Amino acid sequence: MAKRDFRTLFDISRDEVLKVIDSAIALKEGKLKFSMPPLQGKTLAMIFLKSSTRTRISFEVGMYQLGGYALFLSSRDIQLGRGETIADTARVLSRFCDAIMARVFGHSDIEELAEYASVPVINGLSDKHHPCQALADFQTIKEKKGKLKGVKLAYVGDGNNVCHSLIEAAAMVGAEISVAAPKGYEPAKDVVKNAEKEAKKTGARISIMNDAFAAVKDADAVYTDVWASMGQEDEAEERKKIFAPYQVNAELLKAAKPDAIVLHCLPAHRGEEITDEVIDGPKSVVFDQAENRLHVQKALLLLLFGKI
Fold first, then answer.
1. Res 187: pLDDT
2. Annotation says 5 is catalytic
3. Domains held by the chain: number
4. 133 in active site
5. pLDDT digits (tens, 9 = 90+) for 94-125
6. Among 13, 49, 123, 176, which one is most buried in terms of CB atoms within 10 A?
7. Residue 79 belongs to a domain with what CATH number?
8. Percent of the chain predicted with pLDDT > 70
9. Is 225 a known active-site residue?
10. Considering 98, 132, 133, 163, which one is annotated as catalytic?
11. Smallest Cα–Cα separation from 303: which of 21, 111, 10, 48?
12. Is the separation of the CB atoms in 108 and 114 below 8 Å?
């Protein structure tokens, strides 16, 4: 079987995105079963240059449940943290393991891993994309809304890696996404441009603006993320002032549909990008969304190993 990488959502087809989401739901409901563990004997190398809760646990538990083994590798555990090149690391891990998942700072690290690895490389997070998260997010939306095509998702906050992958996912499944970010913090133009090409094929709609209330108007789902991502800690105080009008709170949610759901990829800085009242409120599906990282990760692994 030819090697499959998952650097961004566009590494798999629209049909495969939908297959992963539907398979994740089936796995969660116990409706997708195998006569024997489908990944028995398979090993996943997990490189973590950034700390993690959901990514690490979902992949580690997911591999175990599928019959495989996940190997945690921080920069302190391997020579990558002492100057060994990414290319050499990729070549060596490919001799030992059946796939590599990496959570890194620069997206170029994921690209280089994929270039030199002879086994599938999965982007567990980079500064530009978080495709695994977007799959879990749209799984959650489908579970709660019963469909994806035509659903309006409003994203409020920093035009970051999570936002980029949400835009790509929305374009692929035919959803509407409305992004509100402060001036100068909008999503990258190249990401939006590429997604717009896909949106023309699926009927998706992508809107980028600076007004949070306009973005949230009549939304089926409202999403936010931290205002300062890992590696941006020195900007945190300045960003708090700039992003204050973009807090997801009860007042902002009044602009969404009455049955709108609220999503957050976690970890949350409560009282900053989202209030306790909202994240703990009846509209929040944040912890269902977190759980879905496990199910969608399993479905993605099965896809890349040719098991679904």
1. 98
2. no
3. 2
4. yes
5. 999 999 999 999 999 999 999 999 999 999 99
6. 123
7. 3.40.50.1370
8. 100
9. yes
10. 133
11. 21
12. no
For residue 235 the two structure tokens come to: 């900007």
Distance CA 308, CA 292 (A): 18
Same structural domain, 282 and 138? yes
Range of the domain at 266: 132-289
Q: Do both 118 and 180 map to the same domain?
A: no
pTM of the model: 0.97
Q: Which two tokens stand for residue 15?
A: 């049909």
> Can 130 be counted among the known catalytic residues?
yes
Within a domain: residue 205? Answer: yes
Q: Is 293 a known active-site residue?
A: yes
Q: Are residues 175 and 205 in the same domain?
A: yes
Fill in the DSSP letter of residue 137: H
Q: Are residues 87 and 184 in the same domain?
A: no
Mark whether 161 and 273 lie in a shared domain. yes
Catalytic residue (choose from 7, 130, 164, 264)? 130
Q: How confident is the model at residue 12 (pLDDT cuts 50, 70, 90)?
A: very high
pLDDT for the residue numbered 231:
73
- The string of pLDDT tens digits covering residues 176-214 is 999 999 999 999 999 999 999 999 999 999 999 999 999
